[in-house]
Amino acid sequence: MIATTQLRAALGHFATGVTVVTAAAGDSRHGTTANAVSSVSLDPPLLLVCLRDESLTLAALLDSGRFIVNVLHDEQRALAQRFARRGAGWDGVAHRDGRLHGALATLDCELHDVADGGDHRIVVGRIAHVEHAAEHAPPLLFYRGAYA
Questions:
Q1: Which has the closest alpha carbon to 126: 140, 141, 143, 107?
Q2: Is the predicted pLDDT of residue 135 greater than 90, yes or no?
Q3: How far apart are CA 97 and CA 109, in angstroms?
Q4: Phi, psi of 52 (to 5 degrees)
Q5: What confidence category does residue 8 fall into, taking pLDDT thresholds of 50, 70 and 90?
Q6: Taking the model in full, what pTM does it have?
Q7: How many Å is the Cα radius of gyration of the chain?
Q8: CA 125 – CA 38 distance, rounded (Å)
Q9: Sign of CA dihedral 55, 92, 81, 15
Protein backbone atom coordinates (compact mmCIF):
# COMPACT_ATOMS: atom_id res chain seq x y z
CA MET A 1 0.00 0.00 0.00
CA ILE A 2 1.28 3.47 -0.87
CA ALA A 3 1.59 5.93 2.01
CA THR A 4 -0.38 9.16 1.59
CA THR A 5 2.71 11.27 2.29
CA GLN A 6 4.71 9.39 -0.35
CA LEU A 7 1.95 9.78 -2.92
CA ARG A 8 1.53 13.50 -2.14
CA ALA A 9 5.29 14.04 -2.53
CA ALA A 10 5.41 12.19 -5.85
CA LEU A 11 2.37 13.97 -7.30
CA GLY A 12 3.78 17.29 -6.09
CA HIS A 13 6.35 17.07 -8.88
CA PHE A 14 3.55 17.76 -11.37
CA ALA A 15 3.17 21.54 -11.66
CA THR A 16 -0.43 22.72 -11.97
CA GLY A 17 -2.21 25.98 -12.57
CA VAL A 18 -4.21 27.48 -9.71
CA THR A 19 -7.88 28.40 -9.93
CA VAL A 20 -10.66 29.54 -7.65
CA VAL A 21 -13.94 27.74 -8.32
CA THR A 22 -17.01 29.72 -7.26
CA ALA A 23 -20.67 28.78 -6.95
CA ALA A 24 -23.76 30.34 -5.40
CA ALA A 25 -26.79 28.75 -3.84
CA GLY A 26 -29.53 31.17 -2.92
CA ASP A 27 -27.91 34.21 -1.31
CA SER A 28 -24.74 32.33 -0.35
CA ARG A 29 -21.62 32.48 -2.52
CA HIS A 30 -18.72 30.10 -1.96
CA GLY A 31 -15.23 29.76 -3.39
CA THR A 32 -12.56 27.08 -3.29
CA THR A 33 -8.96 27.08 -4.49
CA ALA A 34 -8.48 24.15 -6.85
CA ASN A 35 -5.61 22.88 -8.94
CA ALA A 36 -7.29 19.64 -10.06
CA VAL A 37 -8.80 21.28 -13.15
CA SER A 38 -8.52 20.08 -16.72
CA SER A 39 -9.93 20.58 -20.18
CA VAL A 40 -11.98 17.57 -21.23
CA SER A 41 -13.39 18.40 -24.67
CA LEU A 42 -13.60 21.29 -27.13
CA ASP A 43 -16.72 19.96 -28.84
CA PRO A 44 -18.78 20.03 -26.72
CA PRO A 45 -16.81 22.47 -24.53
CA LEU A 46 -16.26 20.56 -21.26
CA LEU A 47 -13.87 20.87 -18.34
CA LEU A 48 -13.50 19.02 -15.08
CA VAL A 49 -12.74 20.10 -11.56
CA CYS A 50 -12.26 17.90 -8.51
CA LEU A 51 -13.71 19.15 -5.21
CA ARG A 52 -13.63 17.56 -1.75
CA ASP A 53 -16.84 15.85 -0.67
CA GLU A 54 -17.21 18.28 2.29
CA SER A 55 -16.70 21.41 0.15
CA LEU A 56 -19.26 24.17 0.63
CA THR A 57 -18.54 25.18 -2.96
CA LEU A 58 -19.39 21.67 -4.15
CA ALA A 59 -22.68 21.78 -2.22
CA ALA A 60 -23.59 25.15 -3.78
CA LEU A 61 -22.57 23.91 -7.24
CA LEU A 62 -24.72 20.80 -6.94
CA ASP A 63 -27.64 22.89 -5.66
CA SER A 64 -27.45 25.53 -8.40
CA GLY A 65 -26.13 23.45 -11.30
CA ARG A 66 -23.66 26.24 -12.16
CA PHE A 67 -20.09 27.23 -11.31
CA ILE A 68 -17.27 29.49 -12.43
CA VAL A 69 -13.60 28.59 -12.79
CA ASN A 70 -11.28 31.59 -12.32
CA VAL A 71 -7.70 31.03 -13.58
CA LEU A 72 -5.29 33.01 -11.38
CA HIS A 73 -2.15 34.93 -12.34
CA ASP A 74 1.03 35.00 -10.27
CA GLU A 75 0.07 38.15 -8.36
CA GLN A 76 -3.17 36.58 -7.06
CA ARG A 77 -1.52 34.32 -4.49
CA ALA A 78 -3.46 36.04 -1.67
CA LEU A 79 -6.76 35.04 -3.33
CA ALA A 80 -5.56 31.45 -3.69
CA GLN A 81 -4.56 31.36 -0.03
CA ARG A 82 -7.82 32.98 1.08
CA PHE A 83 -10.06 30.51 -0.74
CA ALA A 84 -7.94 27.54 0.35
CA ARG A 85 -9.59 27.99 3.78
CA ARG A 86 -13.06 26.55 4.38
CA GLY A 87 -15.77 29.20 4.59
CA ALA A 88 -13.56 32.04 3.35
CA GLY A 89 -15.46 35.33 3.26
CA TRP A 90 -15.87 37.64 0.31
CA ASP A 91 -15.22 40.95 2.11
CA GLY A 92 -12.82 43.04 0.02
CA VAL A 93 -12.75 40.56 -2.88
CA ALA A 94 -13.31 42.33 -6.20
CA HIS A 95 -15.67 40.17 -8.23
CA ARG A 96 -18.77 40.20 -10.40
CA ASP A 97 -21.07 37.33 -9.49
CA GLY A 98 -18.12 35.11 -8.61
CA ARG A 99 -15.94 36.16 -11.56
CA LEU A 100 -12.76 37.40 -9.87
CA HIS A 101 -11.48 40.74 -11.17
CA GLY A 102 -8.07 40.41 -12.77
CA ALA A 103 -8.25 36.65 -13.32
CA LEU A 104 -6.43 35.42 -16.42
CA ALA A 105 -9.62 33.69 -17.53
CA THR A 106 -13.10 32.95 -16.23
CA LEU A 107 -15.13 30.01 -17.48
CA ASP A 108 -18.84 29.95 -16.63
CA CYS A 109 -20.05 26.36 -16.55
CA GLU A 110 -23.29 24.44 -16.31
CA LEU A 111 -23.19 21.12 -14.49
CA HIS A 112 -22.82 18.30 -17.03
CA ASP A 113 -21.90 15.27 -14.90
CA VAL A 114 -20.56 14.21 -11.49
CA ALA A 115 -18.49 11.11 -10.75
CA ASP A 116 -17.06 9.49 -7.63
CA GLY A 117 -13.43 10.40 -7.04
CA GLY A 118 -12.71 8.84 -3.65
CA ASP A 119 -12.79 11.69 -1.10
CA HIS A 120 -13.56 14.11 -3.96
CA ARG A 121 -16.27 14.49 -6.59
CA ILE A 122 -15.18 14.81 -10.21
CA VAL A 123 -17.40 17.55 -11.60
CA VAL A 124 -17.67 17.96 -15.37
CA GLY A 125 -19.01 21.30 -16.52
CA ARG A 126 -20.22 22.43 -19.92
CA ILE A 127 -18.60 25.80 -20.61
CA ALA A 128 -21.30 28.36 -21.41
CA HIS A 129 -19.25 31.58 -21.41
CA VAL A 130 -15.56 32.48 -21.44
CA GLU A 131 -13.67 35.69 -20.70
CA HIS A 132 -9.89 36.02 -20.78
CA ALA A 133 -7.21 38.69 -20.55
CA ALA A 134 -5.89 40.04 -23.84
CA GLU A 135 -2.43 40.75 -22.44
CA HIS A 136 -0.01 38.12 -21.19
CA ALA A 137 0.53 37.64 -17.47
CA PRO A 138 2.37 34.74 -15.83
CA PRO A 139 0.03 32.14 -14.29
CA LEU A 140 0.05 31.20 -10.62
CA LEU A 141 1.43 27.67 -10.32
CA PHE A 142 1.47 25.08 -7.56
CA TYR A 143 4.55 22.86 -7.37
CA ARG A 144 5.86 20.58 -4.60
CA GLY A 145 3.41 21.88 -2.03
CA ALA A 146 3.97 25.60 -2.64
CA TYR A 147 2.96 28.38 -4.99
CA ALA A 148 5.48 29.08 -7.73
A1: 107
A2: no
A3: 13
A4: -60, 145
A5: confident
A6: 0.93
A7: 15
A8: 11
A9: positive
